[in-house]
Amino acid sequence: MAQTGDREGFGVQDYTTFRVFLNKLPYGVMICLGTAVIVLGFGMTLWAQIAAGVYVAYGMAGPFWMILFICPYCRNYGKICHCGYGLISAKLRRKGETRLFGAKFRRYIPAIVPLWIIPGAAGGVALASSFSWWLLALTATFLLESFVLLPLVSSKCECSHCDQRRACPWVKVQGAGST
After folding, report:
1. How far, in Å, CA of 82 to CA of 53, rounded?
2. For residue 120, how far is the Cα from the chain centroid?
3. What one-character-per-residue DSSP string does 79-108 give?
4. pLDDT tens-digit profile of 146-172?
5. Which of the residues 9, 50, 127, 159 has an alpha carbon 20 to 30 A from that of 35?
6. 70 and 162 in contact (C-beta within 8 Å)?
């Protein structure tokens, strides 16, 4: 990642496809683990497979939700950014006012929050009805990955390099990226 300039007091980064992939990997792992918790928690029943398929679709829709409703207001709109969404957003939506980024983030991010909650709740219900050490370990791994590792990677590898960080509600909650 090379710094190419400075805009409004923030470093502008050139992100490679591999770096974007590494930044998004914890989210993908979270979706895979969450899917496994749902399927294994309720057996390989048709309903468990349907629920897992819906969760995967929801997980895949999450980034597009951000691309459509948050990214147009980001300073990285139309550019390669740590999320990898800036260029895609520019092809799908017109640019919004960057001063509205924080408000748009707060308004639209709650739509994807259940991705962090559903598998943990499903694992808890399944464990309460039929305890299994394997499911307990898988659910605990999901919870650690989604509530510890993913936020840590985001704050240290993405947020700390993002030129939008001073206006980002996520950074304010995490205390990430302060320089």
Report:
1. 28
2. 16
3. S--SSS-HHHHHHHS----GGGHHHHHHHH
4. 999 988 887 776 666 666 666 666 655
5. 159
6. no
Is residue 34 very low, low, confident or very high in pLDDT (cuts 50, 70, 90)? very high
Percent of the chain with pLDDT over 70: 79
74 pLDDT above the threshold of 60: yes
CA 51, CA 45: separation in Å to the nearest integer?
10
Instruction: Give, as one character, the DSSP assignment of residue 179.
Output: -
Are the beta carbons of 151 and 43 closer than 8 angstroms?
no
Question: Which tokens in the block code for residue 62?
Answer: 């999450």
Cα(96)–Cα(141) distance, integer angstroms = 38
Give me the helix-helix angle, 133-144 and 17-41, nearest 10°: 150
Phi, psi of 5 (to 5 degrees): 165, -170
Show the tokens assigned to 93.
């939506």
For the chain, the structural domain boundaries read 13-165
